[in-house]
Specification:
This protein is α/β, with parallel strands linked by helices. The protein is built from 14 helices and 14 strands. The strands form four sheets. Strands 2-10-9-8-5-3-4 form a seven-stranded mixed beta sheet, sandwiched between helices. The structure holds pyridoxal-5'-phosphate (PLP).
Length: about 400
């Protein structure tokens, strides 16, 4: 026997989460998660699951019956789409303009699909013409996949148009909505997206670890017509549905895996909060707070990576100016001001900071707090800033 380690309970510091996710979790969500745990087939819990599906359909703006949260993070939502919709040898076009497009490509390879890449520069949107050209050259394409909101750069691509183009050539569209859901307009039925996945920890401001997904009729038909078995037991949608149920058929739920009960209470609460606020007011809140932040950033003499027309309000990429020590800025923001901001990823590592204003974190107060802290941290590194100019610029936006 070894001695029991003498480790005390963990009490995290209170931070303001202004990175690329997770965002700040509202106290109502944390309180919901502390409620008594039920059995995962308890009728009361099953009632809550039905409400959750209704609420998620609202968030995605869809009538899709197959809409539910996977018991895993957004990466598993991504992987589920590929392992279910791609059979070995299927041709898949991935439109990539950042880290998460590349991750999709990796999923195609691992599903043993035939990968065709459509690449755009990091910091720019997916070019619809390039997708159309690739489809013309690959008329046997089965699936087109793209990221609606590329978190690594802060760019929005035109999910509606990319889906339309995919359908014109008979391909299904898989959309990554991990960073877009509830932050910017996303209309799954109107845009006719076939398969979509998101995460609980960004616009929804729940704790990380759940992945809301939705599959339309064409996608379900494709899964049912598969000639090979889905290689992942956990992600095989035919099996998962036995637990999440088909609300229309009224079929009895059967055990698949033990659901993360309390995490699902949290997601339910965050979706109730979404319904209380309303999607359109939430999109407007994100936009308004983004405009305030941008005004402040520009008043400090800093520049944004992304052209105005493609900027995501929930993820702001700021170019690190010459002579500024990027890791030191983030460390000072965290250690001196308790604010988390994000680093650049991949090709943009060391070149940008990423400031997220997602879900509960998207507030005027957070914008002001962040600008005050950033001004002081940059000034300590010798960056010449007119004291208070950033906050004044942001407040001007907020009062209009
Ligand atoms: C666009 C995008 N896709 C997928 C993921 C993966 O989600 P998770 O980290 O929850 O697995 C992320 C996470 O940041 C993301 O931003």
């Amino acid at each position: 026997m070894t001695d029991a380690p003498r480790i005390h309970p963990f009490h995290p510091p209170k931070r303001v989460l202004l990175g690329p996710g997770p965002s700040d979790v509202h106290q109502r969500v944390l309180d919901a998660m502390a409620r008594p745990t039920l059995g995962h087939l308890d009728p009361k819990f099953c009632d809550m699951m039905e409400q959750m599906k209704t609420l998620l359909r609202y968030a995605f703006q869809t009538e899709n019956q197959l809409t539910f949260p996977l018991s895993a993070p957004g990466s598993v939502g991504m992987e589920s789409c590929f392992v279910n919709l791609v059979e070995p040898g299927d041709k898949v076009i991935v439109c990539s303009n950042g880290v998460f497009g590349r991750r999709m490509a990796e999923n195609v390879k691992r599903s043993r699909g035939e990968l065709v890449m459509v690449e755009d520069a990091w910091g720019t949107a997916v070019d619809p013409q390039k997708l159309e050209d690739a489809l013309k050259a690959n008329t046997d394409t089965k699936v087109v996949a793209f990221v609606h909101a590329e978190t690594s750069t802060g760019v929005e691509s035109d999910a509606k148009l990319l889906t339309e183009i995919a359908h014109r050539y008979g391909a299904l569209a898989i959309c990554d909505a991990v960073t877009s859901l509830t932050c910017i307009p996303l209309l799954v039925d109107k845009w006719d997206i076939d398969a979509i996945y998101s995460g609980s920890q960004k616009g929804l401001s729940c704790t990380p670890g759940l992945s809301p997904v939705s599959f339309g009729e064409r996608a379900i038909a494709r899964i049912k017509q598969r000639t090979s078995v889905v290689q992942s037991w956990f992600m095989d949608l035919n099996l998962v549905m036995g637990y999440w149920g088909d609300s229309q058929s009224g079929a009895k739920r059967t055990y698949h895996h033990t659901a993360p009960i309390n995490a699902l209470y949290g997601l339910h609460e965050s979706l109730v909060m979404l319904a209380e606020e309303g999607l359109e007011p939430r999109w407007k809140r994100h936009r308004h707070n983004h405009l305030g932040l941008v005004a402040g950033i520009e008043a400090m003499g800093l520049k944004l990576l992304v052209a105005e027309k493609s900027r995501l309000p929930q993820l702001n990429s700021i170019i690190v100016p010459e002579g500024i020590n990027e890791p030191q800025v983030r460390a000072d923001m965290l250690n001196k001001h308790d604010i988390e901001i994000g680093a650049g990823l991949g090709d943009l590592a060391g070149k940008i900071f990423r400031i997220g204003l997602m879900g509960s974190s998207s507030s005027q107060q957070n914008v002001i707090t962040c600008l005050v802290a950033l001004e002081s941290v940059l000034a300590e590194q010798g960056w010449k800033v007119e004291s208070g100019a950033a906050v004044t610029a942001a407040r001007e936006v907020f009062t209009t």
